[in-house]
Amino acid sequence: MNKKIDCRNSACPKPVLDTKKALEEMDEGILEVLVNGIASVQNVKRFAENQGLVAEEEKLDNGETIIRIVKGYECSIAPKKDDDDKFLDKVLFIKDNKVGEGELGHILMEGFLKTTLEFKKLPEIIVCVNKAVFLTTENEKMIEILKEFEKRGVKIYSCGVCMNFYKIPPEELKVGEIGNAYDTMDFLLHKTTISL
């Protein structure tokens, strides 16, 4: 059974939730999801891939994108996961671009993240919300530090709604990916969370 859903102009996390619901209603087939925002494309594709599904995108001439998700055909060879020795089962949840107030707050944020890189095991995921999205888009020192996390396999997500609120276009994201509310809550509910 094939299915199509229209998620154009839907705010986060609606495209992901609509995709999840449509997939749950299907036993197998191809789900076509129509979206018109960069964040929606990334979020829907990531959601599908996290479910172990194949997701491909087709950009249309009008700027919209169709994401085709294949459900019901499983690969019998599962990839070996060797991340258990590299990561702590933790999410680093960052809510601001500084720890505390003023210049000291910026110094502390830089120091804490640099120091974290010295540990053998790192948090598996870093989520940036509210003003923390400036760490992944504007602050060059912090972008370089976060790129070191990314090189070591840490997944970094910046809240898409927060970026929209602060009028930061998706192309200004310098490290990591645009995140969404569904993924963030999934991380927070299923992993130990450390807040900064």
Q: What are the defining features of this structure?
A:
Hypothetical Protein Ychn, Chain: A; alpha/beta; 196 residues; Translation Initiation Factor IF3; 6 helices; 2 domains; 5-stranded parallel β-sheet; 26% strand; 4-stranded mixed β-sheet
CATH class of the largest domain: Alpha Beta
- State the helix count: 6
For the secondary structure, the number of strands is 9
What portion of residues is helical? 25-40%
| CATH homology-level superfamily of the largest domain | DsrEFH-like
Distance between the termini: 46 Å
Under the CATH scheme, which architecture of the largest domain would be assigned?
3-Layer(aba) Sandwich
- Uncertain ranges: none
Q: Strand portion, in percent?
A: 25-35%
What overall form do the CA principal axes indicate? globular
CATH topology label of the largest domain:
Hypothetical Protein Ychn, Chain: A
Q: Give me the secondary-structure category.
A: alpha/beta
Can you give the mean pLDDT? 91
Spatial strand arrangement across the major sheet: 8-7-6-5-9
What is the helix/strand order? EHEHEEEHEHEHEHE
Give the radius of gyration.
18 Å
Please outline the major beta sheet. 5 strands, parallel
Topology (SSEs and partners):
Elements: E1 3-6, H1 14-24, E2 29-35, H2 38-50, E3 54-59, E4 65-71, E5 87-94, H3 102-116, E6 122-128, H4 140-151, E7 155-159, H5 160-165, E8 177-179, H6 181-190, E9 192-195
Parallel strand pairs: 1-2, 5-6, 5-9, 6-7, 7-8
Antiparallel strand pairs: 2-4, 3-4
